[in-house]
Amino acid sequence: MSEPTQPETLDRLLDAALSRAGDEPVQFDVAAGKNALAAALKARAEVAEPIAVGAEHQPRRRGRWLAAAAAVVVLTGGGLAASTVDLTGVGSNSATAGEELTKAADLASRVVERPIAPGQFRYVRSRYEGIMVELGSTKATYSDFVQEQWIPADRRDEWLFRNKIISVKWLEGHEGGGKPDAATAFKDGEEFRGKCGNYSYYAEGQPDRCTNGTFSNPTPEFVAALPKDPKELLDKLRDAGQAGDSGALLQAGEALNSGQYPAEVRANIFRALALLPGLVVTDKKANLDGKEGVALGMKYYDDFTEIIIDPENGDYIGRRQTVAEDMPEDKGGLEKGTVRSSSAVTTKIVDSLGAE
Amino acid sequence: MRTQVAPVALTPEVAPAVLDEAALLELYESTAERLHRYVARRVGTDTAQDVVSEAFLVLWDQRAGQTYEADAIRAWLYGVATNLLRGHVRAEERKLRAWSKEYAARTDEADIGDRVSAAADADVLAGPLTAWLAELRIEEREVLLLHAWADFTPTEIAVALDVPVATVRTRLHRGRARLRTRLAATDHDFTEDSHV
To answer: How confident is the model at residue A114 (pLDDT cuts 50, 70, 90)?
Structure first.
């Protein structure tokens, strides 16, 4: 290559080459496939008949379903102005970020939590607000919704998930035509229930929430196996995030956002993050869903990815993504400091499924 | 939350219908060809036929006699197909590399070097790109290809695969970053400022 190629050119080339890659005419006989499917159904029915006699002993496998594609949109008049953060001077206060986290860890580790008793539920409420940009244009929408989850003390029992859309608007100065789309695939008021959190929208073959321990789905076994040493924990976060230090921060955000970690593990996650050399205080007064805290962030592609903690008590408030540099018009044209998305989390122990 | 592609247009809400045999066959007629095209692009036509059939049978086993929404089927079927494709990773990688070699031979014959345009750049790069796709982690490849070849938004991918949207974006960013790095390292002279 004679001269360096512009990143935008590379992006366009990548998209164009991707659309051509592997693309060749494919023969597909719909009628033949349909006949084969009809024959397979018939064969299954014949095999299934004798089993049906003892149907009560052959419980039907629970359905897995996605009832999510047609998003319900709450229309409101006019556009909404984006929230912005002053990012001037960000980038040189890594030591402060580490201190904030260490303080928060000390406070968090002193918290005495009421243990969840058999038959009770952990109620996790996440308030999401965010901007969705349409690539290649300046059109952008703003969505505001709440997702609630009730997790039983015994994860093998029934879980409940509920989605509430509060509003969907065009972002001021970024309006498009027609109705804006919500940034959630779930409808307003939609609910899912399932043992092991195995909701009906799960695709077949997806591991459920009893067996699939990850930072965002911490099974008791997963939590018990986490390293106590902050450096080792940070290595595990890096491994899971697959994107170096910023990947580790994203994983930590997913872990904390799950609302399912005991206080001492949250404290350890803070201590692990305090070891990240590039973590900086991006906002001393970040407000998420009415709670104010300190935002600690790291550059991740075009954004600062941030977690927000309450310096007074070490509570985790939520996470946020803030645009780190002015974006070009073909990427939505959002200004530096615009809050792209935020998610505030609160948790509570409740006595019944659906109780708040 | 953002998306890298235009959001899918809203569709009017449809009253839930019961999934009986006629409804399943109707769904097959309207959905199978597109799903097959996506799967065939990843693993070749022979395996694609099996994967598509299996995805529909899984749908039948799970939901026969129950209500469903036609609009929701697409993401569900692609989610199932993606899970089924994980059992064919080696076949997929072989297919991608074979396509890359075959395409390289074809572009030599066409003497694309004389065609100075961004479209020619993309044509030339489609071959090696296919081989680079085979080198990606499976998690990155499936997110990237659901996005590029099936036109799924990150939000739809998150639902289909049941992973957080942030994870989808991470995988998408990482996959694209790896491919961009490989693109930038080629010795091809790209046509600047050309919209492809």
So the answer is: confident
Render pLDDT for A251-284 as a digit per residue (tens, 0 to 9). 999 899 999 999 999 999 999 999 998 899 988 8
Residue written as token pair 């809050």: A339
Is residue A61 situated within a structural domain?
no
Measured distance CA(B184)–CA(B112) in Å, rounded: 19
Burial A186-199 (b: 16+ CB within 10 A, else e): bbbebebbbbbbbb
Mean pLDDT confidence for A85-99: 74
Round to whole Å and give the CA distance between A4 and A7: 9
How many angstroms separate the CA of residue B41 from the nearest CA in chain A?
6
Q: The domain containing residue A336 runs over which residues?
A: 94-350
Put simply, the answer to whether B2 touches A128 (Cβ < 8 Å) is no
Task: Please give the structure tokens belonging to residue A348.
Answer: 């509570």
Question: Is residue A295 included in any domain, yes or no?
Answer: yes
Question: What's the whole-model pTM score?
Answer: 0.59
The answer to whether residue A284 sits within a structural domain is: yes
Nearest to B16 by CA among B80, B89, B67, B81: B67
Q: What percent of chain A has pLDDT over 70?
A: 83
Of A124, A130, A152, which Cα lies nearest the Cα of A143? A130
As beta bridge partners, residue A124 has: A149, A347
As given in the structure block, the two tokens for residue A160 are 């409940």
Helical (H) or strand (E) element with A150: strand A140-152
Residues A52/B46, Cβ–Cβ less than 8 Å: no
Q: Which A residues in the span 299-338 are in contact with B, Cβ-Cβ below 8 Å?
A: 301, 332
Q: In terms of CA atoms, which chain B residue is nearest residue A339?
A: B1
Each domain of chain B, given as residue ranges in start order, spans 17-184
Pairwise CB contact (< 8 Å): A23 & B41: yes
Highest-pLDDT range among A139-148, A180-189, B73-82, B88-97 = A139-148
Number of domains comprising chain A: 1
Going by C-alpha positions, the residue among A135, A159, A185 that lies closest to residue A331 is A135
Please judge whether B69 and A30 are an interchain contact, meaning their C-beta atoms are less than 8 angstroms apart.
no
DSSP H stretches of helix in A199-327: 220-224, 230-241, 244-257, 263-273
The predicted pLDDT at position A161 comes to 92
User: Please, what sign has the CA dihedral across residues B94, B97, B100, B105?
Assistant: negative
- Whether residue A144 is contained in a domain is answered as yes
In angstroms, the CA A267 to CA A41 distance is: 54
pLDDT exceeds cutoff 60 at A107: yes
